[in-house]
Specification:
91 residues, mainly beta, OB fold (Dihydrolipoamide Acetyltransferase, E2P), five-stranded mixed beta barrel, 51% strand, globular
């Protein structure tokens, strides 16, 4: 096994999430809202759980309301742990 194959095997699979851009006012940073639908353990009703995360947008190309795909990455700042992969739908 050469060195390149060892690096590929050792690297973990990174999480990919889809969300909506809430804010793009920071430099090279967007705030993304991710909605998760889960079934209530007792009542069985489907409830929405939302949370916000900060993602790195290298070219400042996202606008508020865009549907985007973000991927987990190394810590880029105090709160940024995600980076933009692609814009799925523009608003």
């Amino acid at each position: 096994m050469n060195q390149e194959n060892k690096n590929v095997i050792a690297r973990k699979v990174r999480k990919v999430l889809v969300g909506i851009v809430l804010s793009n006012k920071m430099e090279k940073t967007i705030v993304v809202e991710v909605i998760r639908r889960t079934k209530h353990p007792i009542y069985g009703k489907v409830v929405k759980k939302t949370y916000k995360l900060k993602a790195h947008d290298q070219n400042n190309q996202c606008k508020i309301g865009d549907k985007v795909k973000v991927m987990e990455t190394r810590p880029l700042s105090k709160e940024k742990r995600w980076k933009l992969i692609e814009i799925l739908q523009t608003n």
